[in-house]
Every structure is written in C-alpha cells, then in structure tokens.
Amino acid sequence: xxxxAIHKFAxxxxxxxxxxxxxxxxxxIQALDLYKIKDFAEAAAKKSIRAEHLQNELITxxxxxxxxxxxxxxxxxxxxxxxxxxxQAKKYIAVLEKQxxxxxxxxxDLIEASKxxxxxxxxxxxxxxxxxxxxxxxxxxxxxxDACKLEIVTNIxxxxxxxxxDGRLLWRIFSNLFSNLVKYAQPETRVYINSVRxxxxxx
Length: 203
Fold this sequence. Notes:
The protein is mainly α. The protein is built from 6 helices and 4 strands. It has helices at residues 2-10, 25-82, 86-118, 130-140, 142-147, 167-184; strands spanning 126-129, 150-155, 162-165, 189-194.
C-alpha cells in the first residue's frame, strides 16, 4: 500500500490513504512523512489556485474599469472637434486630461497585476506620510464619492502619520479600496478611515 501511495504521489495524485498500524517502525515514519508532504502539497495547491483566482478577478475588474475613461475620452475628443467656444474647449480639455490620467493609472494597475502573477514586483521601502497619501487619494476620487453621496471622514493623528512602505504600492491599496467603495458602499453614507499605531509600533 505504501509503495502504491508513493507511486500515485510521484504522478501528481494526492487522493491516496493507507493504514500505518501494520507497518514497521521505519516504514511508519516514512508513511507519516509522506502524509505531511501530501498535506503541504495540497495546501500549496489550494493557495496557488486562490491567488490565481484573485489575480484573475483583479485583472478582469481593472480591464472593465478601463472602458469608462476610454469611452469618456472618445466622446470628449468628438466634442472638442466640433466646439467653437474657447472656454468650453478648455473645459473639455480638462476632462480629457483627468480621464487620461485615470486611464494611465488603470493601465499601470493592470501591468502591476500581471507582474504580481509572476512575483516580478520591485518594492522600494521608504518613509511615507500616510495622511498626505490618503488626502491625495481622496482628492482623486472626490467626484466619484460625490456622485455616490459618500462622505469620507479621516482620522490620521500625528503619531500615526509616518509609515515605512512603498508609496506607489500603498497608493494602489488606497485606490483599490476606494474603487470598491464606489462600487459597493451604500449611497448617502459616511466612510471612516482611521490610523492607529499599536504598542509594537505597527500601523
């Protein structure tokens, strides 16, 4: 039975079991080790599948989100081609600039998601002002928060402002959180964002 189990495991199969009561002490140890390896392999496989699922979901969501600014850019380019009022043209250009930046960010998110699937991400850890990054992210999403009638209430005390992190990746965390807020939060509600430093100096 042990030989059969080893053969199945060697071929990538983990649906095996056997009794160890009749095995000698030496083979019993080998059998128990085999079970440990089997459990580890199954856990690793589940983790990989879960990570792949989340990664695919992220890529799908970002790809879908790209359509919104892209459609807006196409529409405003068409309007700009036919506008005669210089002031109105400036407004259209401002919208184009804003949507272009949003499209650029979403494209970068998609690239980062692709890199994450291969583990090819460079992390640059340095001091960051959490309050400043958060305010910038809130400002970028202000129009969408207003459209959903969401009120953002932040509480970042001075003692919990500085954080060692990759500012670019931290920004993406805020961006992903706010994107989900816009999609799933109940309209006309308040969203509280607090930062607390723990006893072991973690945020």
